[in-house]
Design a protein that fits this description.
Length: 305
Amino acid sequence: MTAAAISAEHAAFPQGALAQSWLARTDRALKTALQLEVGAPPQLAEAMRYAGLVGGKRIRPFLVYASGYALGVDPRTLDAAACAVELVHAYSLVHDDLPAMDNDDFRRGRPTTHRAFGEANAILAGDALHTLAFAQLAKSGLPSDVRIRMVEVLADALGAVGMAGGQAIDLALTGKDATLNILRDMHTRKTGALIRAATRMGCCAARPTSDPQAQAMDRYAKALGLAFQVWDDVLDVTGDLASLGKDPGSDLAANKATFVRLLGLAEARTEAKRLCDEALAALTGFDQRAEPLRSLAHYVIQRDH
């Protein structure tokens, strides 16, 4: 099925028993990781739980489990990776929302972490969520070579050539014109790097990232990450606070470089659908065990938040 023929059944996040079991595993792992009853200052621990436990679609943990499932990996070996990637995602949102970055007041329908706890506490909560993610991998009990590969994949996704670099490019482009290639490069880093890392971590437990199936999965994730961001730019124009959980129009108001600003709304929708098709094409060689990945690709460009 091409993206142009997406049916209404794909508009919702994958809801099957398998998907729900993965989401439940993620939530259990996050709650355990964020208990922090001993040693952590109470306000810091509360801010970390505020950012890490409430709301969110859990797309990145889903990708860890779904990519592993497509390759026959036992989900129990992926709990630490799923938890780690969501902790890192939570950290990135806390820092992105700060006044020095995107300066957002709402996230997931409630005040952003710096609005609820103060800017300094939000910075510290983000820092602590970031380091906690790597602690989950280090203490996972997985074979040492698998742990090292997962740590390397996650670290590469977050650094100067990954998510942090993408955010730096975004800040530098504010108020300036950008070409389509520059936008794609920026969001391949800022949004796509962590999505690709989630998929790669799922593959790490099965085979080296040089394996042809792992490489195909990475092509899927690269296209998916860009489709996700293009559709986010569409929603920034078409959504509202109730559906998005954050202020709509914030990117355009801040004069950010976006796909809608560059391409226009209709063409941005077309680009998202093209990228969805590209992601699906990368999975051509996989059997029915890749259906959760396919369903997620459809969902990404049909969601309303």
